[in-house]
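2024-03-11 09:14:02 INFO worker-7 job=invfold-0412 stage=load source=structure_tokens
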């Protein structure tokens, strides 16, 4: 797949088939993604890839907590600023309208929105998931390094004909994930990522992007 096609066809897919993803494919993707840049080449990411029974166990534990009405885990990092300023606030609102509107869920129907959000912790039916951790002692530049690593993973998955969905939502149930993968104490869960073949029957629309002039300024020397 052409690199432009891989980048522009990547999107957060929220409906997967149960078709297995071969381990060799995941190994190939992650071996290539390891070439993502990082400051002084410290490679601050630590990924756990789950399939089969281990992934089913994580989903089960999260599902049981949802059913019991358990509170989310204590946040280990701030996912969004408390008060989003413009234009970020409007972009986030537009995303919510588009996503839940496509599902036929009204803005005021909070119960239906919660049911839709709960699909996060089933990985939207995906047969594989990656959980990405970072050392608690790392700073903002290393979080940027992790973003470049994860983007590399998602683009390479597209080259393999696969789709993904990065999910900070898993940080809300980080204890449930840790019970299965047993990470060292110094590691903090940043996000999960559902991986698999898209269920084309779901027919979810793609979220729009801001026009180039909103996010890029060319300072020409001509």
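2024-03-11 09:14:09 INFO worker-7 stage=emit residues=222
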């Amino acid at each position: 797949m052409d690199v432009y096609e891989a980048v522009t066809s990547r999107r957060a897919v929220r409906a997967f088939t149960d078709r297995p993803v071969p381990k060799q494919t995941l190994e190939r993707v992650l071996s290539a993604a390891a070439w993502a840049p990082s400051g002084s080449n410290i490679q601050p990411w630590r990924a756990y890839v789950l399939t089969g029974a281990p992934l089913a166990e994580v989903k089960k534990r999260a599902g049981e907590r949802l059913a019991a009405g358990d509170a989310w885990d204590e946040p280990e990092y701030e996912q969004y600023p408390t008060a989003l300023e413009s234009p970020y606030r409007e972009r986030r609102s537009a995303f919510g309208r588009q996503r839940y509107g496509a599902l036929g869920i009204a803005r005021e129907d909070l119960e239906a929105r919660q049911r839709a959000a709960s699909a996060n912790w089933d990985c939207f039916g995906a047969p594989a998931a990656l959980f990405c951790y970072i050392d608690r002692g790392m700073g903002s530049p290393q979080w940027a390094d992790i973003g470049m690593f994860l983007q590399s993973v998602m683009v390479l998955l597209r080259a393999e004909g696969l789709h993904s969905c990065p999910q900070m939502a898993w940080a809300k149930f980080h204890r449930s994930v840790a019970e299965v993968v047993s990470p060292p104490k110094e590691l903090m869960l940043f996000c999960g990522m559902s991986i698999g073949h898209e269920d084309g029957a779901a027919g979810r629309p793609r979220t729009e992007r801001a026009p180039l002039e909103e996010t890029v300024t060319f300072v020409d020397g001509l």
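2024-03-11 09:14:09 INFO worker-7 stage=report msg="The chain has a mean pLDDT of 90."
2024-03-11 09:14:10 INFO worker-7 job finished
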